[in-house]
Amino acid sequence: MPTKELPEDAPGKYVPYHPEPYYSPEPLPIEPKLELPEQTRDLVADAAYQIGRVDGISSTVDFSAVLYTSLIRIEAVESARIEGANVAYQDVEAYHTRHPEGQTDPKIEKDLKEALNYETALTHGLNKIESRESLTLSLLKNLHSILLEDVRNEGDVVGGFRDHMVHLASPQPGKRPFVPPAPEGLNGLMTSFESYIQMGGQYHPLVDAAIIHYFFETVHPFSDGNGRLGRLLIILYLASEGYLESPYIYPSAYFNRHKIEYVERMRAVSETGAWDEWITFFVEGLRTQAETSYNRTHRLRDLQAHYDKEYSGSTNTDKFARQLLQYPYFTPLDLVDYLDVSRRTAYKIVEDLESDGIIEEVTGKERGKEYKAVEVFDILN
């Protein structure tokens, strides 16, 4: 097949290959250096402001640890959904309630396992960054192994770069697939990728995050899991640069809502050098998600104040209602441990709060009932 000719502004070229030419990007850093228009710089400044607001409000709430965990799980679900998984946030919370830390379920469905793996990988990566470890190819390969644990397809290389060609179908009907670089070029490209991260990039961290994400997805170094790992990488990079004091913004929900544009904007960079359009799309996603996280946290803080006022008494029901944001999904027996009360008291608390309409049973079973805090879940979802 003839090689598609690209303009000089394209940061790479198509290389003849049967049955489709593959795309070979230029190594990082981008040459010549990008000159961003004022409108893009203003958007970056606004996004930075929104992210700062999230850090500010998140540090003032009593339920920050639960919010942190909840947002990681929401991101895990959204990232799995982009890959076609049928999983909900409630499924992840239910799994952790049924399987306390250290317990696993060998019969877990693949879709849910993908979300749980993402949660584990993101938490692991953030812990490494907080321990001052560098964002290296070795760490990425380790995270890849976590992401694909028990969900790999036959032939996938896990924890290492792919050894075969891959074809990425276009979301646009009739458009030919995108073919990333051949395996023999991966080490050189990913070494430039690692070096760029180690040098701290060349632009504002939000712009560099856009460049890094584009490059990773275009090279597509692994046989599977590149989308999940690439989205996870955004958070880890911003955290490693000290730009996110607490990682309360997650991009997958935005990319999921704009999936076709997400793919097409990256392809336009490869084929026409449309960097500004891609960076604008990417940074707008972070800005939007930061604004969403701020509003979500503000609503949760208002809900906490409401529970503090409505359940200001000293009964066990009052005490648990005031702690509901810390335990948004639970079983009656969990309350025995949480509150150090008898089973009878635990069931009485559940009965009271269910009668008030602030919790509801979700399994529909006569035994092994599980409950969620209705208003908390409404806000988180």
UniProtKB/TrEMBL annotation:
Domain Fido: from-to ranges: 135-284
SUPFAM superfamilies linked: Fic-like, Winged helix' DNA-binding domain
Classification of source organism: Archaea, Methanobacteriati, Methanobacteriota, Stenosarchaea group, Halobacteria
Species of the source: Halohasta litchfieldiae
PANTHER family: FIDO DOMAIN-CONTAINING PROTEIN, FIDO DOMAIN-CONTAINING PROTEIN DDB_G0283145
Protein name (database record): Fic family protein
